[in-house]
Amino acid sequence: MTAAGFSPAENGFDCSATHAHRQSLQRDSDMKMYILVKEDVPTGFAVLAAAHASLAAYLKFKDRPEMAEWLSGPFYKVVCRVNEKEFEQSKTFPDHVVLTEAALDNRETAVAFCPREEWPKPFQFYRLFR
């Protein structure tokens, strides 16, 4: 029994099969979702923006085959801090959703992309959020 009172085995959920399935997908797929957060967004808002961005990307792209493939795997996400120029440039790439924050006068704070295996070259150089 888990802390939430849900027992996967009692509810017909085979954890060992799911784990094996996820391991096979990890070897077969490099699907990643990129989330870019502006570097001037305060840390608390940045964390909130990244969480909301992941959900917003899912909701926007939920009917796409790429999203279905990503959901069947380990949900890799790469969260990076970017400067204003990088943020604006990233919006020229397809399949994204931009997030704003009401508490920051509706400023754009993050952009999230539909998961994919291949990414444009600039994504290799964005700094990881730490």
Could you outline the blueprint of secondary structure elements for this entry?
Layout: H1 15-28, E1 33-38, H2 43-61, H3 65-71, E2 77-82, H4 84-90, E3 96-101, E4 107-113, E5 127-128
Parallel strand pairs: 1-2
Antiparallel strand pairs: 1-4, 2-5, 3-4
Question: What features would you describe in this structure?
Answer:
The chain is 36% helix and 21% strand. It is an alpha+beta fold and 130 residues long. It has a single domain (30-128), classed as 3-Layer(aba) Sandwich (Bit1). Strands 3-4-1-2-5 form a five-stranded mixed sheet. Strand 3 and strand 4 (107-113) form a beta hairpin. The N and C termini lie far apart (34 Å).
Uncertain stretches of 5 or more adjacent residues: 1-27
| Measured distance between first and last alpha carbons | 34 Å
Strand order of the largest sheet: 3-4-1-2-5
Rounded mean pLDDT is 84
Instruction: Give the SSE string.
Output: HEHHEHEEE
- Give the full name of the CATH homologous superfamily: Bit1
Shape: globular
CATH class: Alpha Beta
Radius of gyration: 17 Å
Q: Helicity, in percent?
A: 25-40%
For the sheet with most strands, the description reads:
5 strands, mixed
Q: What is the total tally of β strands?
A: 5
**What is the CATH fold-level name?**
Bit1
In a few lines, what is going on in this structure?
The protein has four helices and five strands; from the N terminus they run αβααβαβββ. With 130 residues, the chain is of the alpha+beta class.
